[in-house]
TrEMBL record:
Domain Antitoxin Xre-like helix-turn-helix: 71-129
Domain (Antitoxin Xre/MbcA/ParS-like toxin-binding) ranges: 137-186
Entry-linked Pfam families: Xre-like-HTH, Xre_MbcA_ParS_C
Protein name: Toxin-antitoxin system antitoxin component, TIGR02293 family
Cited InterPro entries: Antitox_Xre, Xre-like_HTH, Xre/MbcA/ParS-like_toxin-bd
Native organism: Noviherbaspirillum suwonense
Biased composition (Basic and acidic residues): 1-21
Ranges where the record places region Disordered: 1-56
Length: 189
């Protein structure tokens, strides 16, 4: 199985520069998507949202993965609060759904975003987990749109729960990774 080429790799960057690259991506976020949403009154599709606004969440999914100490350092520093909206745009779901998975109350998310603050390490880790598992799904399905749809939809393998909704805990993510491994190897999930 071939692995799709990744765009805008940050693999050679030190961890602090990758965090700042994610911050910069969030600084540019939203202009095209916000105009489209205002003009049509609808939420852009996940693929369109990603093209118009890759944002920091898109960078987590399609950039070089942070691993080891770089991931730990990034999680400890926390992601900018705007990543919550970037993740909802990426998946084409409501902000409330991503906030529930990240366990960040709506009022807290709004306050942190307005002050350009960061979410805490626990919420950052949930978003990091969501991104890395989504990247695995994209690699398995070899199609971003199919992977995003698979993550969003209820699945019998998870007692009719969407894989995305299991990203709030590591045991949930382990279950999703196991099913993705079974799909990748042709086994039964």
């Amino acid at each position: 199985m071939s692995v799709p080429a990744r765009k805008e790799s940050t693999a050679g960057m030190p961890a602090d520069k990758r965090v700042h690259a994610a911050d910069a991506a969030l600084g540019k976020a939203g202009a095209g998507s916000a105009r489209k949403k205002a003009a049509t009154g609808t939420r852009p599709s996940p693929a369109t949202a990603k093209r118009n606004d890759p944002g920091a969440f898109g960078q987590i999914v399609s950039g070089a993965p942070l691993g080891g100490f770089a991931a730990v350092q990034s999680i400890r520093e926390g992601y900018p609060a705007a990543i919550l909206k970037a993740a909802s745009r990426f998946f084409g779901v409501t902000d409330a759904r991503i906030q529930a998975i990240a366990q960040v109350p709506a009022s807290t998310a709004s306050r942190l975003e307005k002050s350009a603050a960061r979410i805490d390490a626990a919420a950052t880790e949930r978003l990091y987990r969501m991104g890395t598992v989504t990247r695995m799904a994209i690699d398995v399905f070899e199609d971003e749109a199919a992977a995003v749809e698979w993550m969003r939809q209820p699945n019998r393998a998870f007692d009719n729960t969407a894989p995305l909704d299991l990203m709030d805990t590591e045991p949930g993510a382990v279950s999703v990774r196991q099913v993705l491994n079974a799909i990748a190897t042709g086994g039964v999930a």
